[in-house]
Amino acid sequence: MKKAIIFYPHIGEYGGIERNIIALASEIIRNGHIPVLVCFYDHINMPGYLDQLITVEIKDHWNPLVKSLRLKRWLKQNKNELLGLPFFMGGKAGFYGAFFNNNYILHYTDPPSLLSPSVPKSALKNWIATLRSHISNFITFNGVSRAKVCLTMTNWNTKELESLYRRKFGVIYQGGLPPTRSINQSPRFNGKILRIFSISRLNTSKNLDWILETAQYLVKNSKIGFEDVEVVIAGNGPQMNYLQTLSKEMGLEKNVSFPGFLTTEQVEDQYSKCDLFLVPARQGYGLPVLEALYRHVPVVINVESHISEMFTNNPWVLISDNTVDDFRNKVLNHIFKIKEQYPDNSYIKNLPTEQDWAFQIGQQCNWW
Predict the structure, then answer these.
(1) Has residue 115 got a pLDDT over 90?
(2) Assigned architecture for domain 3-175+354-364
(3) Residues 217-247: pLDDT tens digits?
(4) What are the sequence ranges of the domains in the chain?
(5) Cα distance between residue 226 and residue 194, in whole Å
(6) What InterPro entries does the annotation carry (predicted)?
(7) Beta strands in the chain (DSSP E)
(8) Partners of 317 in the β-ladder
(9) Neighbours of 116 (CB within 10 A)
């Protein structure tokens, strides 16, 4: 059997992109081929998430140019075993594409405007960092220009990427993790307790303090019509201690919990019993939005989560401006609106699925 190559340079933790890789690898297997994940390091043992996935770790190096040449050499040495074109995932993969010639497919995830800014350092270090950034951007520009096809996740992303790289980007909407058991189809907001759920990596761009501010308002406001409020913010990340401390300072210890990583079964439990799913993040997509809707859970989302473009006229989803005040107000509005008139299921019938996304990627790569 031929090998379909997925190149993702650095795997440090399990998140949305890693989930996409597993979905893509599963589709490769369904189509009778061998999925091979090529990277410079895999700190989480990706084959542990899918037995038939093969991981090839090309020897890492401090110099990215050396890494690029090692990647090119490996692909050349194994070209007779490869199926179609290799699939390069992420903007960093585009950097390494500068050493190729129109023989790979690039999927650009988060556009540069969503990347976290660097922490200010000394004048000399800032100058060196700026120089390195300019060189990196120049190489990435060349890498993107050399891709046979460039793809991204939303039309919003294409506007920035096409302006930056001066070439066409196609859009394939990603899908989320489908339910692993029967879903709760009963109308939400019918209990005495208002249950709110959110799951993501706990970092600054996710704006999870907005959920705490919203929870504090809900707890203090008896007009919402519930006896109590329970909020679960799942996931791990660098802001865990900060958010736990902030929650305590806001007097929310009894209302907000941070369970960390949840198993698939635990995630299903949360979706089954929650009334509302919150996504205050600023991000290139937002897979959990789809996963909540698959399970008939209403959502409030920040417009800066670019998946929001899919739901501008969907009564299951209310979109806020990129401010904590408007996000809090939209949460209140959504609760009252849905209690007044529950949305019809027809609005959540034809959502993108991860299998559809993976199949379309395979078509672009000439794997089938």
Answers:
(1) no
(2) 3-Layer(aba) Sandwich (3.40)
(3) 999 886 688 999 999 999 999 999 999 999 9
(4) 3-175+354-364, 193-348
(5) 6
(6) Glyco_trans_1 (IPR001296)
(7) 3-7, 10-11, 34-39, 41-42, 54-57, 87-89, 105-107, 149-152, 170-171, 193-199, 228-234, 256-260, 276-279, 299-302, 317-320
(8) 299
(9) 8
